[in-house]
TrEMBL record:
Originating organism: Acidiphilium rubrum
GO cellular component: cytoplasm
Key words of the record: Transferase, Tricarboxylic acid cycle
GO biological process: tricarboxylic acid cycle
Pfam families: Citrate_synt
Catalytic residue positions: H312, D370
Annotated pathway: Carbohydrate metabolism; tricarboxylic acid cycle; isocitrate from oxaloacetate: step 1/2
PROSITE patterns, per database record: CITRATE_SYNTHASE
This protein's name: Citrate synthase
GO terms assigned for molecular function: citrate synthase activity
SUPFAM superfamilies per record: Citrate synthase
Length: 436
């Protein structure tokens, strides 16, 4: 076989028997081949075992590509660094949904469509009254987004392409309003309605920071930083929350319920909750002199302490988003006139020490997207409880793009993993009087 030709199949032979399974090897545009195991049980009577699906391709997708060894992240083939520098979040949303960058007319129509859906049904406001003021905003996002199907029943038919598109517009357009209102409710300020004259990022900052008592002053520095942060968080192939959205969607659940499931999955500190956890970790470390003791605690497995913002299931090199986030950190702090941010200093020292320590290097643990994002968001005035909701705001675009791709995939079927059963063998019921 020539070096360029790829093998077309793999064979599994069961030891001690003449059972053989021939597995087709499928090739993508980029990345490793995959063994198609859909006939494995029929041919060899076995399943595969992959807790956490670390080595399992759950679907075919054209949206995002990650090379974890090379630190590569592409949205529809475009490198994340180019999009972060040259594009806007709404243009990236179009790219993720439709597969190509829009021309001027296509962008204008898309932008108009999103703008026309930013307001919420007025009765949804009453949902907030049911929450305590100190409710975590992710609880609000889960609840309100999950309930949206009750207010927008004209866009829940998943078999209608136009209804699918309308639900996508509604989710992308309304998630900033819901997120900003979750914040306003937590601080007891009145909700600010979206404005059609502002960009997507600026509209969100307006709803977060404006008050009825005075006119709002736009801040182009924060607008650009916000837009870039949203781009960096928009999609990331089949991560835990996206896989949750796809699994929920595979049952035929409506898109609002699927995105609410994704929000719930993202909330975990091992996933989207890590940005909030990084700030908490830096706060607990407090001072550079405490870093060695903290690192020792992380290395002591019995402590169950993790270096939050480090490590990644796929990236075994730098997360390209972390580098852009670090650069944005400098820009935002500089432009805000924050000369030396103690949190950034502490984070930089922690990163330096970790990257010099074989415990982390040998385990290929590098900073991920969450390591710096919290520092920027704090400098921009966001409370830590709003960090993960911001992640959910951006990732809603990726989730809904992946959901649309899944619904339109002819190979798609209901997700139903199997298991390795290690419980009790079959046994008969014993009356309570006869039990020991
Ligand atoms: C996101 O999947 C995505 O794409 C997610 C995401 C996205 O955009 O959707 O990129 C967003 O979730 C980023 C990750 C944010 N989470 C954190 O920063 C939390 C801290 N990180 C870890 O919890 C962990 O690294 C995970 C959850 C991210 C990855 O977990 P894995 O794949 O189980 O880790 P691993 O198998 O690579 O771990 C290898 C070793 C293990 O030690 P040993 O058993 O070999 O001795 O490294 C250790 C782990 O215990 N390890 C860590 C560590 N992460 C892994 N040790 C200390 N600190 C850490 N952060």
């Amino acid at each position: 076989m020539s070096a360029s030709a790829k093998p077309s199949q793999a064979t599994i032979t069961i030891e001690g028997s003449n059972t053989t399974a021939v597995l087709p090897l499928l090739s993508g545009t980029l990345g490793p081949q995959v063994a198609d195991i859909r006939k494995l049980q029929a041919q060899a009577g076995i399943f595969t075992f992959d807790p956490g699906y670390g080595e399992t391709a759950s679907c075919e997708s054209k949206i995002t590509y990650i090379d974890g060894d090379e630190g590569v992240l592409l949205y529809r083939g475009y490198p994340i660094a180019q999009l972060a520098e040259k594009s806007t979040f709404l243009e990236v949303a179009y790219l993720l949904m439709y597969g190509d960058l829009p021309n001027a007319a296509q962008f204008e129509e898309f932008n108009h469509g999103v703008t026309m859906h930013t307001m919420l049904h007025e009765q949804i406001r009453r949902f907030w009254e049911g929450f305590r003021r100190d409710a975590h905003p992710m609880a609000v996002l889960c609840g309100v987004v999950g309930a949206m199907s009750a207010f927008y029943p004209d866009s829940v038919n998943i078999n209608d392409a136009r209804e699918r598109e309308i639900s996508a517009f509604r989710l992308i357009a309304k998630i900033p309003t819901i997120t900003a209102w979750a914040y306003k409710y937590s601080i007891g300020q009145p909700f600010m309605y979206p404005r059609n004259d502002l960009s997507y990022a600026e509209n969100f900052l307006y709803m977060m920071n404006a008050v009825p008592a005075e006119s709002y002053r736009k801040n182009p520095i924060l607008e650009r930083a916000m837009d870039r942060i949203l781009i960096l968080h928009a999609d990331h192939e089949q991560n835990a929350s996206t896989s949750t959205v796809r699994l929920a969607g595979s049952t035929g659940a409506n898109p609002f319920a699927c995105i609410a499931a994704g929000i719930a999955a993202l909330w975990g500190p091992a996933h989207g909750g890590a940005n909030e956890a990084v700030l908490k970790m830096l706060g607990e470390i407090g001072d550079k002199k405490n870093i060695p003791a903290f690192i020792a605690e992380v290395k002591d497995k019995s402590s169950h302490t993790k270096l939050m913002g480090f490590g990644h299931r796929v990236y075994k090199n730098f997360d390209p988003r972390a580098k852009i986030m670090q650069q944005t950190c400098y820009e935002v702090l500089g432009e805000l006139g924050i000369k030396n941010d103690p949190l950034l200093d502490l984070a930089m020292e922690l990163e330096k020490i970790a990257l010099d320590d074989d415990y982390f290097v040998s385990r290929k643990l590098y900073p991920n997207v969450d390591f710096y994002s919290g520092i920027i968001l704090k400098a921009m005035g966001f409370p830590t409880t709003m960090f993960t909701p911001l992640f959910a705001l951006a990732r809603t675009t990726g989730w809904i793009s992946q959901w649309m791709e899944m619904i339109e995939d002819p190979q798609q079927r209901i997700g139903r993993p199997r298991q390795l059963y290690t419980g009790a063998p079959q046994r008969d019921y014993v009356a309570i009087a006869a039990r020991a």
